[in-house]
Amino acid sequence: MARIVILTGAGVSAESGIRTFRASDGLWEEHRIEDVATPEGFARDPALVHRFYNQRRAAAAAALPNAAHLALARLEAAGAHQLLVVTQNVDDLHERAGTQNLIHMHGTLAGALCAACGHRWPAPAEMAPQDSCPRCLHPATRPDIVWFGEMPYRMEEIWAALRAADLFVSIGTSGNVYPAAGFVADARHGGVATLELNLEPSQGTRFFDEARHGPATQVVPAWVDEMLCT
């Protein structure tokens, strides 16, 4: 039984209709990253940030898991390999496809976080600046999303899994956002086999032992079929 760590990025959910982050123009859904995805942006205009994530939450709820999500869930359910899926995505499409051993390293749209006391709870469909924390009652509710400048979640657990893995697979990620972009180098340093499945070569494609390029809904199910035959 191989131990496999799979990193997924926006390219996995893009074919479900969820728009990807485009760093080239500095905009995300027509907003500056600094305005909607940083603690400083939230401090300046919490209403704008809440509107932005309310829209993203609605878009994610309307989307459906695609063939790539379903294939990864099928690989896990088969039980022939030990899988950990680490996703940079904040939607719940992996969960709805059936994946269970999952880490949302950048948080999730389904969660709310109190910026005052750190309490977490399920997010409603719409959030607003005046929403109070159910624990401390402070009106400091924010999306439970890791913004630029903040530390991703459960990193020690992820690093430990990478060190213990037999195979690291990166799917649908550009390879330009750290620390996730550094996973392949750390895996290679530890002697772990590495594979890239991406629409096009990522910025770190040269670090992978093997790379296969094409739509996630094609290359991921094909790879899963191979893994289930070995």
TrEMBL record:
Give the matching Pfam families.
SIR2 (PF02146)
**Can you say what this protein is called?**
NAD-dependent protein deacylase
Query: Which reaction is catalysed here?
Result: N(6)-acetyl-L-lysyl-[protein] + NAD(+) + H2O = 2''-O-acetyl-ADP-D-ribose + nicotinamide + L-lysyl-[protein]; N(6)-succinyl-L-lysyl-[protein] + NAD(+) + H2O = 2''-O-succinyl-ADP-D-ribose + nicotinamide + L-lysyl-[protein]
A GO molecular function term, named singly, is: NAD+ binding
Q: Which organism is it from?
A: Rhodobacter capsulatus (strain ATCC BAA-309 / NBRC 16581 / SB1003)
What residue stretches are annotated with the Deacetylase sirtuin-type domain?
1-230
Q: Which cofactor does it need?
A: Zn(2+)
Q: Does the entry feature the keyword Hydrolase, yes or no?
A: yes
What Gene3D superfamilies does the entry give?
SIR2/SIRT2 'Small Domain (3.30.1600.10), TPP-binding domain (3.40.50.1220)
What are the alphabetically sorted keywords of the record? Cytoplasm, Hydrolase, Metal-binding, NAD, Transferase, Zinc
Name the protein family. Answer: Belongs to the sirtuin family. Class III subfamily.
| Function noted in UniProt | NAD-dependent lysine deacetylase and desuccinylase that specifically removes acetyl and succinyl groups on target proteins. Modulates the activities of several proteins which are inactive in their acylated form.
Positions of NAD(+) binding: 9-28, 88-91, 172-174, 198-200, 216
EC number(s): the record gives 2.3.1.286
Residues the entry annotates as binding Zn(2+) = 114, 117, 133, 136
Swiss-Prot/TrEMBL domain comment: 2 residues (Tyr-53 and Arg-56) present in a large hydrophobic pocket are probably involved in substrate specificity. They are important for desuccinylation activity, but dispensable for deacetylation activity.
List localization entries: Cytoplasm
GO CC field: cytoplasm
